[in-house]
């Protein structure tokens, strides 16, 4: 569903929390995959996950002179390329070129509602103002924009103000990333478990107050517990897909030299695209199999939200040295009168569900980064209603309010929900 590719370690900023420990613009970054190598792996991604969202980031991806070529290559193969950038190098001319190449949108980092903290965190005076200029340039070029903020104790009071900025700029989404202490981030002070709880409460409140803006907590799967939602359940603007750690399940990351990890914050290498086909890595590596088939250990494995949340695997690894250990950042302890969460009905009954060919064909025309969400939601509805066959009529009757655009890529057409 989602691939994050750090195209380069080079960067024009010096962020103190960078998980990649990026090099500044003038530094050398040896061994990065060249244009032809990247294009070959893009083809492998398209073959493995048609329609997947491909986040091209860095370092700073705008420092790659071939970025337009890579975006065009990905879009022509039906992927949805998105640029993850600090925004400071993005002017209207560059944004128009990326849009013309087929970029579905940009994600721009903005870590505070005023310049001081953002500039200090990013290591360059003026970075905040430059990021805003980049967002405006992208919007002027007609690109969808999401804002990304990494949360610390110093800026967690800025959430509402950041939402104000996101709305004023016409952003589609606002993503709050909860720090995982890897890379240069090991020098940063993480939020305490109590601060996590308070901040997640604020995120939930903001989303309910601002339904027109998608507001998400990233690397904090216990948001599902805060919402009281179990696997497959949906409420308000929070769908079933906003649950559990995606690492190695529907998400992987490729480093500049071609090494593959389950996510940017898990340093465990599961393959090298220079020597092994991506499909073989994805389907056969034992670590990825563990992530997909094992319940976590400790309190996470016995939790009443063990499927719908399950904890962050990167934090478990950082804290305990075991990817499948418990996530100690979560304060929740299963109540004495509660049982461990049972497998969701959509999982238990999946083998009993059948899709009629027309419904399956319609589903397959949807981009992969929403296809999984739609499929899971429909199968959950079918399981709850004891329906064994999903038809086009069933899809029509359970049509969700889509609050995000579906982009055409290359010769593909945007999928339409049946009316």
List keywords for this structure.
two-stranded parallel sheet, ten-stranded mixed beta sheet, 36% helix, alpha/beta, 16 helices, 419 residues
Quick description:
The protein is of the alpha/beta class. The protein is built from 16 helices and 14 strands.
In words, what does this structure look like?
36% of the residues lie in helices and 14% in strands. With 419 residues, it is an alpha/beta fold. The strands form three sheets. Strands 9-8-7-6-5-4-1-10-11-12 form a ten-stranded mixed beta sheet. A two-stranded parallel sheet has the order 2-3. Strands 13-14 form a two-stranded parallel ribbon. Helix 3 packs across helix 5.
* Gyration radius, rounded: 21 Å
Mean pLDDT over all positions: 86
Order of helices and strands: EEEHEHEHEHHEHEHEHEEEHHHHHEHHEH
Q: Biggest sheet: strands, sense, closure?
A: 10 strands, mixed
What is this structure's SSE topology?
Layout: E1 2-6, E2 10-11, E3 23-24, H1 35-48, E4 53-57, H2 67-76, E5 80-85, H3 92-101, E6 105-109, H4 115-122, H5 127-140, E7 144-151, H6 159-168, E8 173-178, H7 193-209, E9 214-218, H8 223-227, E10 251-254, E11 259-261, E12 271-272, H9 278-284, H10 286-293, H11 298-301, H12 313-320, H13 345-348, E13 354-355, H14 357-364, H15 368-384, E14 389-390, H16 392-397
Parallel strand pairs: 1-4, 1-10, 2-3, 4-5, 5-6, 6-7, 7-8, 8-9, 13-14
Antiparallel strand pairs: 10-11, 11-12
């Amino acid at each position: 569903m989602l691939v994050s590719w750090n195209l380069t370690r080079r960067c024009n900023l010096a962020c103190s929390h960078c998980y990649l420990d990026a090099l500044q613009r003038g530094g050398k970054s040896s061994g990065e995959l060249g244009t032809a190598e990247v294009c070959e792996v893009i083809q492998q991604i398209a073959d493995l996950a048609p329609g997947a969202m491909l986040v091209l980031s860095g370092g700073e991806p705008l420092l790659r002179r071939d970025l337009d070529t890579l975006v065009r290559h990905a879009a022509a193969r039906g992927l949805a390329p998105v640029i993850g950038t600090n925004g400071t190098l993005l002017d209207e001319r560059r944004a128009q070129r990326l849009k013309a190449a087929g970029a579905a949108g940009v994600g721009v980092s903005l870590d505070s509602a005023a310049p001081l903290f953002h500039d200090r965190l990013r290591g360059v005076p003026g970075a905040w103002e430059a990021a805003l200029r980049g967002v405006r340039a992208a919007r002027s070029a007609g690109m969808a924009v999401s804002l990304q903020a990494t949360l610390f104790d110093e800026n967690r009071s800025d959430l509402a103000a950041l939402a104000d900025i996101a709305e004023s700029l016409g952003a589609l989404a606002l993503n709050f990333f909860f720090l995982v202490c890897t890379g240069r981030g090991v020098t940063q002070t993480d939020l305490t478990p109590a601060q996590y709880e308070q901040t997640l409460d604020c995120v939930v409140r903001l989303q309910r107050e601002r339904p027109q803006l998608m507001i998400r907590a990233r690397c904090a799967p216990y948001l599902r517990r805060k919402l009281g939602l179990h696997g497959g359940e949906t409420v308000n603007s929070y769908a079933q897909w906003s649950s559990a750690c995606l690492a190695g399940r529907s998400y992987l990351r490729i480093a500049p030299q071609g090494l593959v990890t389950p996510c940017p914050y898990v340093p465990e290498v599961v393959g090298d695209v220079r020597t092994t086909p991506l499909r073989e890595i994805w389907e056969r590596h034992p670590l990825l199999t563990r992530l997909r088939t094992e319940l976590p250990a400790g309190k996470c494995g016995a939790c009443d939200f063990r499927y719908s949340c399950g904890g962050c695997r990167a934090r478990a690894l950082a804290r305990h040295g075991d990817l499948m250990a418990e996530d100690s950042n979560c304060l929740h302890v299963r109540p004495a009168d509660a049982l461990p969460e049972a497998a969701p009905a959509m999982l238990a009954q999946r083998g009993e569900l059948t899709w009629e060919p027309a419904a399956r064909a319609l589903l397959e025309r949807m981009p992969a980064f929403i296809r999984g969400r739609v499929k899971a939601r429909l199968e959950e509805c079918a399981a709850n209603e004891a329906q064994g066959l999903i038809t086009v009529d069933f899809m029509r009757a359970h049509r969700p309010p889509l609050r995000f655009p579906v982009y055409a890529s290359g010769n593909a057409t945007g999928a339409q929900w049946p009316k």
